[in-house]
Amino acid sequence: MNGIANSHTIILIFFMCAVTYLPRLLPLFFLSGRRLPLWMEEWLGFIPIAILSAIITPLLIVNGDTGHVVFLNREVVVAIPTFVFALRTKSIGFTVLIGMALYWLLGRFPVLYVMKIYG
Amino acid sequence: MNLRKAKVIWEGTKAGWPICAGYFPAGLAFGVAAQKVGLSPVEIGLMSLLVFAGSTQFVAVSMLGSGTGIGPIVLTTFTINLRHVLMSSALAPYLSKLRRSWIFLFAYGVTDESFAVNASRFRSGDWDWRKAIIVNHVSNLSWVGSSILGGYVGEFVPSNAFGIDYALKAMLICLVAMQMRNRYFFIVFVISGVLAIIFCLVLPGNGYIIVASMTGATLGLVLRRDWKEDFRSGK
DSSP E strands: which ranges in B106-177? Predict the structure, then answer.
């Protein structure tokens, strides 16, 4: 622990604030009333899912320590029911809880997912 | 406070509470995760208050934990949150009569969740910017409060207890699910995911996120255009 606040972290937070706030503010500021070209709107529409997929897929499949690609590990086995649950409920809170619970359960009872993989 | 004001606050809160209910466990998990990499409750509260972007904060904290410097974290933050450009662009027409000072306040609260609620209410017509700002700020209150609480509780929660390490991944998985609007989105999801795996093995740092997502979105656009052409020409 480093006291109440560390200057390195405070600088980081201010920069993060700026790069988060500007994309939220500038379009409201300049675009009220105007419209983007259609292709740009479509492209921007794909950006959220593309970015989220590019973040989450390697996080689940590529082992950060070894750099190996592993398709059937605990992360992926938990991700499938978590994804189905999220599609059904669209609830972030409950999805986070379900994902954490499943991950924890598989950690405690590894036999469950070993059976799923080999059974 | 007059009756009209009270009604606006009540209606905004009513629309915003499901977001609060969802933010609470996520914020708690964020606070615990941030405490684990050495952030103090003050820093955690400040980050939630100033940045107010759930997935980004999780990513930033996990990068801090692996010793990444300020530059890559800020760049990743920018890339992840670039999606808000689209949300703000979509909300802009509804806020055209709003004074500049209120726009500064409104912009601060544009998140995936508040956008989803406000955009659908605006579209249905029974909504105004005052209620939308209430939605933004009650959800902000829940996010800041629960993350500070998580920062205090974190000390007593052992690392990886109750699968807390999976909170970020589950949150991202849910955000992906919420974006699955039609098959083109599924295709972009698959293309970007595969590209990200390949690029993350060959590119240094976190550059793969930007390269893979921009390529994925562009290919999605091209495919959609092509298929629409095919459809029109009767193929």
Answer: none
8 Å CB contact between A52 and B209: no
The two structure tokens encoding residue A32: 């009220």
CB A87 within 8 A of CB B186: no
pLDDT on residue B90: 78
pTM here is: 0.70
- Contact criterion met (CB < 8 Å) for A5 and B46: yes
* DSSP structure class, residue B161: G
- Residue B205: CA count within 13 A, CB half-sphere: 12
Locate A31 and state its tokens: 């675009």
**Range with top average pLDDT, A50-54, B10-14, B155-159:** B10-14
Question: Hey, are the CB atoms on B175 and A2 less than 8 Å from each other?
Answer: no
Are B22 and A93 spatial neighbours (Cβ–Cβ below 8 Å)? Answer: yes
Whole-number Å distance between alpha carbons of A11 and B217: 32
Domain chopping of chain A, boundaries:
1-34, 38-118
Distance, in Å, from the CA atom of A42 to the CA atom of B132, rounded to the nearest integer, reads: 25
Min Cα distance B196 → chain A (Å) is 5
Q: Which amino acid is at A28?
A: L
Contact (CB, 8 A) for A61 and A70: yes
User: pLDDT (tens digit, 9 = 90+) per residue, B113-125?
Assistant: 888 788 878 877 8
